[in-house]
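Appendix B: a complete holo record

For completeness, this appendix reproduces one full record from the ligand-bound portion of the collection. The bound molecule is adenosine-5'-triphosphate. The inputs are the chain sequence and the ligand SMILES; the output is the full three-dimensional arrangement of the complex, encoded as structure tokens. No fields have been trimmed.
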Amino acid sequence: MNLEDAFAWARVSIGDSPIPGFILNMPRTIEGVPTELQIARECALLGNYDTALLYFESILQTIQLYAKTVSDTSLRERWLLTRQELSLEFQVIKDIGMELASFKERPLGSNSFTRSKSSLDDEPSYGDPVDKDVWPAPDPPARRPIYRKTKANDEDNLPSWARNQVNSSISSARAAAQRGKAAAVSKSAVSKGKIGGSKSSSSGKPGTASPPPGKKLVRKAQSQPTLVDRVAREKEDNKEKVAPETDENGKPNFDGAGYDKELVEIVKRDILQSTPNVRWTDIAGLREAKSLLEEAIVLPLWMPDFFQGIRRPWKGVLMTGPPGTGKTLLAKAVATECGTTFFNVTASMLTSKWRGDSEKIVRLLFEMARHYAPSTIFIDEIDSVCSTRGEGSEHEASRRVKSEILMQMDGISGSLGTNAEGEREPIVMVLAATNFPWHIDEALRRRLEKRIYIPLPDLETRRELLRLNLQSIKIADDVVLEELAEKIDGYSGADITNICRDASMMSMRKRIRGLSPEQIRSISKEELEAPATKEDFEAAISKIQSSVSQADLKRYQEWMDEFGSY
Ligand SMILES: Nc1ncnc2c1ncn2[C@@H]1O[C@H](COP(=O)(O)OP(=O)(O)OP(=O)(O)O)[C@@H](O)[C@H]1O
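The structure of the chain with adenosine-5'-triphosphate bound, as generated:
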């Protein structure tokens, strides 16, 4: 369908039917988008907001579906950006439509708009509002003509002011499209049209044929912001409210245009952690895991030319193992030590708190990660959002979130090549953790190319853990860390931290037993901070059992034998 045909169709349908059937039958191809967009904008210009919105919806959907099929990240990003801009336009048109509807609901009567005989027989026309200060001028689109198709020539049925406007819009749109400046199309088309007004009336000189009805109102309407003004203003607002110029590191702030401001704030506040402040030295043992993570993340940053082609960096790393073994700490240390921006997401955040918005959050998250690259996205408890697909109990929303994560991970090129603009691809690494690796969807498992096991601490690590945990408290001379470390075989790092905390509070508990609140308050700090004894540690160990069973360990071993990738 060429532009004229499409437009003729659209014009015929305006007024004939609230939902023109041809829209529903329209082929949804990406090639059809420019034409559809042209029609959508023309419909908006002529005040047929319902039809314009239908077109916009179809366009947004087409772009979204198409973007999913584009493997080139930068190209896909550009499509998604275009989609964001169009959805802003869509929103503005929707707002205008709603505003207009609210005018229509007001009764026509003494305190409303008066009707006068129109130069067009079948067209409603409005005179001046009775009280201009109280009642705003109705939006000119309310006066839109109802066009009817004739055998002779469709355009004959258009009043000349509208025909001139449409023709000039189309020709300028064509010219601009040829120059490849799509943005200019809307600007010139809309500003010329002033949404249902006319060029001639804007200059105060009526056109050659009958001027548009309700000239005074049209003039008044011209002082109102145009579609383009509103889009531009909304973008400005977004920038002002969402994105100050630079962050604390002097990096340009993420421009959340096109996204719900609240979502951008949520991600910035709850997920983005620029400095998690955990060092390798804060983590006991796990030497293998540390060096693997370093290799996966630091080396590609240091030697980008080496990590090309088959040696591209890993897209994702899965850390699995019993609970409390330091997986979260490792992820934080990666971000601190490697200087990457850290996005800390727990899957439960996505599945509960923002149900409904979860997919948008995932999209936003990856977009922000690319903006602040090099970035590490840490997804804890990934099994709860990416469990095996198609299970009966699977919720539709979590299925969509899962698909979005997979799609976004595919978008991480993993190569350090250059994009169409000659810029280096941003490095975004997904680091996931789970205590239930057997629940993970196989498609996700494949994308998490490195799958490493974070084990229970061995003897040396347990000793180191005791040392780390006890460095800020006093311990009695009878405490031998080596002996203690042997006694707590089978305990996780988190269990050991609990034991140390409990033991360090034993002397205080003994000291305050049987005392009144008054007496407790009068105890000196020195007395309370008596060193933890061997007896205290033994009491703590007898109270706290290991949180990991042998059966669990066996299951991890079996899974790693089958799917592990070091
Ligand atoms: N290797 C370690 N070095 C230092 N502290 C550790 C280590 N392992 C565990 N801990 C302690 O255990 C706590 C829990 O660790 P972390 O949250 O990293 O475990 P996790 O494996 O992510 O647990 P979960 O699977 O339950 O989320 C830490 O805050 C820390 O006190």
